[in-house]
Each structure stands twice: as C-alpha cells, then as structure tokens.
Write a structure and sequence with these properties.
There is one protein chain. By secondary structure, this protein is mostly helical. The chain has one domain: Arc Repressor Mutant, subunit A (Orthogonal Bundle). 38% of the residues lie in helices and 9% in strands. Strand 1 and strand 2 form a beta hairpin. Helix 3 crosses helix 4 (91-99). The longest helix has 17 residues, at 51-67. The N and C termini lie far apart (60 Å). The relative contact order is 0.18.
Amino acid sequence: MNEQDALDKLIVDENENPDINLLAKIISEYIRFDKKTGEIIFQKEFYGLKDLQKFLIFLLGRKTILIKKLKDSFNEKISPKEISEVLGIKAATLRKYVSSDLKNIVKSEDGKYFVPNYNLYKCEEKLAKNGKSNNKKSK
C-alpha cells in the first residue's frame, strides 16, 4: 500500500518545482534572458543593488535558465570563482555571504552555490529586508 499520511505533505524535495510566480516576482525588476543564448541580461535596477542582493538575484537567474531550459545541459550550481568573474564580487566575499547572511538560503554542493527551490520565500524576505543601496536615485 502506498497511502500518504498527513506528515507526508510536509516533506519537501529540493528538486520539486519552485513557485514560478514567486520566482518571477523576485527577479523581474532586475534581469532578463537572451532568447537565443540563454544568457542573463542585467537591467539598470540590478546595478543599484548591494553585492549580496546581486549574488542572490544571479543565482535565481541561473535557476530560471534551468527551469526554462534556455541552455542545453545547464547546471544551475556555480563556483564562487565563476560568480566573481561575472559579477565582479570577490570569491572570498561570496563565501562570507554564504556562511553568514545567506547561511540558510544558499546551499553549497561540491563547492558550487545554488538556491534550493524551497528557499524562494527566504530570498524574497532577504531582498526586501536588506533594501536597496543608497546609490539608487529616488523616483
């Protein structure tokens, strides 16, 4: 028999599909994707974010590439060195974020970072709580 009890609903799998609407809501202001190459295109608003927020948005962008299959044989997990090359944030700083501010949000697997699907709501909270950097002009 394969009956589920009430507790089975509470067990999550990081491979379960994320809340697509929440993911879109979180990243829509900051990034777009090239239809042909699948590359992330940073919007003007992205550059007004703090480095920690850029890191988080970038990881969520990679999740979107995977979900929408914008690149062939793509792995959303990425090393600090690779992130550093794209975002210009030192790898040591990224590691510090993962071990402190993003400790329960970003996971590391074989030295590569990603956001588990079940942590999207934490990403939304972190981005809202940290606010935008002071160099962003008010409208």
